[in-house]
Amino acid sequence: SASQLGFIGLGNMGASMATNLAKAGHQVRVFDVSRAAIDAVVAGSEGRASVASSANEVVPGASAVVTMLPSSKEVTQIYSGSDGLLAASKGNGTLFIDSTTGEPGVCEKIAEEAQQAGAVYIDAPVSGGVVAAKNAQLTFMCGGPKSAFDIAAPLLAAMGKKSIHCGDKVGSGEAAKICNNMLLAVSMLGTCEAMALGKHLGLNPNNLAEVLNASSGRCWSSEVYNPVPGVVPGVPSSRDYDGGFLCALMLKDLRLAQAAAAQNQVSTVMGGLACQIYSLMCAHGLAAKDFSVFYKFLQDQQNK
Ligand code: NAD
Fold first, then answer.
1. Cβ distance 223 to 184 under 8 Å?
2. Hey, which CATH number is domain 175-302, 3.30.70.3040, 1.10.1040.10, 1.20.1440.60, 1.10.3720.10?
């Protein structure tokens, strides 16, 4: 059934997510620090999204509020304290669904604060990227009480194809997201290396990709998002690595994984190496390129 909702953070991902909630019939009050981002969502919402002039203004009357911010830093700024979202909910039991990729520990802290303020906060980061956001095909990984997950699930269904409850502990969704992206980085870097070696052995990249994708080396990076230009049409490698999932964001996620590993004294050797490689690429001016650009980086080093 249709609800009154709030949505904060209308960037590459959030704009499409808020629009899909409105298209599903919900009334959505939206806020972003960018007025242009607000106006674009309101214009594309079939009259069901309306302008809020501050973050807190989305809260009154909303049964649930979704946030999709860059990182934990902005999440803490917006939620916490006497002038934050949690206080603005005035003990009305508002459900806050945070889809930002952030730190599990920060989510836990905010969930405690929410409880004290008479609100509920769960984490629900996403996988899928901007195309999946636009087409309501995201995967949500959620942490928090099952009862809160069950209330969130129909709203998440308007923005995604699958929602998975990762644990009763708030932050469990972020934990799963960090593991997924660490594996994605490792498999992408490995795919780039294999494709580059194959090229130097005289193999045709299309032919090698066909072999990998019919063999045990197959992965999302080789099959759906191949890093060699021309192998898969329409992915960032085929448009000089522009758009997509930026090296800077992958580095942020790998650092979250490394911090979580250090806090829990877990060895993540490949994750650590991947973190160093993305750090190096960002330092070489590739921060705003897609994360599959390691293939080009390797070629450029080879040709020096
Ligand atoms: P983005 O930078 O495009 O969007 C963030 C939005 O938040 C911007 O519009 C910004 O103006 C707004 N914002 C920042 N501070 C604010 C504040 N204090 N109050 C209100 N609005 C504020 O980022 P994105 O690509 O949409 O990603 C959002 C989150 O989703 C990140 O944590 C990212 O890691 C994660 N994510 C991104 C992708 C992807 O492919 N882009 C995929 C999965 C997950």
1. no
2. 1.10.1040.10
Q: From CA 287, how far away is CA 129, in angstroms rounded?
A: 17
Going from the C-alpha of 233 to that of each of 14, 79, 188, the distances in angstroms are: 26, 41, 17
**Cα separations in angstroms, 24 against 160, 181, 203:** 12, 29, 49
Residues involved in catalysis: 177
Structure confidence by residue, pLDDT tens digits, 39-85: 999 999 999 999 999 999 999 999 999 999 999 999 999 999 999 99
Binding site membership of 14 for ligand 1 (Cβ less than 6 Å) = yes
Q: Domain limits of the chain? A: 4-168, 175-302
Name the nearest CA neighbour of 164 among 201, 125, 190: 125
64 C-alpha to center of ligand 1: Å?
19
Give the Å distance between the CA of 292 and the centre of ligand 1.
20
Q: Give the residue, out of 77, 224, 249, 252, with the most ligand 1 atoms within 8 A of its beta carbon, to mutate for a pocket test.
A: 249
Prediction ipTM score = 0.99
Q: Is 11 in the pocket of ligand 1 (CB under 6 A)?
A: yes
Whether residue 282 contacts residue 248, with contact meaning beta carbons closer than 8 Å, is answered with yes
Is the C-beta atom of 33 inside 6 A of ligand 1? yes
